[in-house]
Amino acid sequence: MTPLTKKVKAEYLSSNIIICPLTSNKAYSIAVSNNGKSLSEGRLLAVSYHSRCLICNTDRTGIYCGTTNEGCYIDGECHQNGTVYSRNECLVCRSDLSSTRWSEITDGNCATYAISLNTIIITFVVILVLVMVIAIVIAVKLVKQRTAEKKLLEEIENNRRSNDHDITLPPGVRIGTYGATRRLKF
């Protein structure tokens, strides 16, 4: 991988201090020129990072960065403690809770709307179980009703064969299929 070379204007402060714009959090090998053509022989390894949110160190094997408790480093951006997330007013940077994720605001209007993912999952599972129980109860009732209808139809058929016409229907029992009641003729 060939390193990217980019020339930028720097502000000269002293023989050992220059200020130059660094665009992102990464390591830079910096060489200085006072005529725009000849570069300094010594190269300086510099690491650019948001010091409010990150602390970085280098050694021979690489660059190591970790978060501080001064702010939040979320999605490649540094946010000061107390910064409210622009897309959701119920989320805020609280490095005491997390320095890498937005934290929920749990007071005021947000407290009534803050629903955790666990609450949503538990509610969904409870509703699903209730629907399944209701479906099972209905299925059992339908099977019992069909069995009772079948038994009653068998009894009617047996009575018809024996010319015995005394049939007593239990209260609430109708003879029929899919709710259509059949009239019994003797």
Quickly list its features.
186 residues, 27% helix, alpha+beta, rod-shaped, two-stranded antiparallel sheet, 12 strands, single chain, two-stranded antiparallel ribbon
Question: What do you see in this structure?
Answer:
This protein is α+β, with helices and mostly antiparallel strands and 186 residues long. The protein has a domain at 118-151. Helix content is 27%, strand content 23%. It has two helices and twelve strands. The protein has helices at 109-113, 117-162, and strands at 11-14, 17-19, 27-30, 44-47, 54-59, 62-67, 71-74, 77-80, 91-92, 103-104, 176-177, 180-181. The strands form six sheets. It has a two-stranded antiparallel ribbon with strand order 1-2. A two-stranded antiparallel sheet has the order 3-4. It is rod-shaped and about 125 Å long. Residues 177-182 have low confidence and may be disordered.
